[in-house]
Amino acid sequence: MPASSPVTPAAPKAETAAFRSRADDTYALLKRDIAEFRLLPGDRFTEGEVSERLGVSRTPVRQALFRLQQEGFVEVLFRAGWRVLPFDFDEFEQLYDLRLVLETTAVARLCEDAPRVDHARLQALAAIWLVPVEARSTDTAQVSGWDEEFHCELVAAAGNGPMTRVHRDITDRIRIIRRLDFTQQPRITATYDEHAQILHAILARRGKQAALLLRSHIETSQAEVRKITLHQVYLARQGGRT
């Protein structure tokens, strides 16, 4: 009777998965540091410094940085480490323009009650935004996250998968400046009011009104974000890092 073959150990696959997880975690941490201005536009750093600070080896750090480089957040400097790229406001303006096209198209489909419209998503949004004033959240981080999901869910509710994926990608790209729209309480109040108006128009299937309200909301946010971003970077440069 032939001897049984030795079982091939599964360690390599487990090690690969663990490495991929470390690289993903490192990527997420570095992206958060950029978004929260712990790493400022123009800051220079080395892979060794990041490795020591995060307690991981240089390999996942390098993989995370290459990923951030592809997304336009950092650049590699010849024999001098890495640098956080300055804000490209021209690109942000173009991304906002594309976002506006996608969202107004989605709203039109929602108001027409086109096939594949997900009414459950709209009702879930209503449960968050169509609440009495006294029930509104004052948590800036929470409202910031809800605002992002409001716009993503509007697009997703229209039922067009490719459009939803493109919109999600744009949302990810502009998050670094968009979140700054929630550093002031008046903007939180305005966001609740404006989202409620948009939802009421959609649920009543008033397409033109919904599109006008949405356009005004996005353009106002875009203008506020640009002003706040410049001020926020200035304060961080003066030593106001968190």
Structure description:
The protein has 242 residues and is mostly helical. The chain has helices spanning 11-35, 47-54, 58-70, 89-111, 119-129, 140-157, 161-178, 185-203, 207-237; strands at 44-45, 74-77, 81-84. Helix 5 (119-129) packs antiparallel against helix 8 (185-203), helix 6 runs antiparallel to helix 7 and helix 8 packs antiparallel against helix 9.
**What is the overall shape?**
elongated
Rg, rounded, reads 22 Å
Beta-strand residue percentage: under 5%
- How are helices and strands ordered from N to C? HEHHEEHHHHHH
How many strand units?
A: 3
How much is the average pLDDT? 86
Number of helices: 9
Helix content: 55-70%
Strand ordering within the main sheet: 1-3-2
- Beginning-to-end CA distance, first to last residue: 69 Å
SSE class: mainly alpha
Specify the biggest β-sheet.
3 strands, antiparallel
- Low-confidence parts: none
Task: Provide key terms for this protein.
single chain, 242 residues, mainly alpha
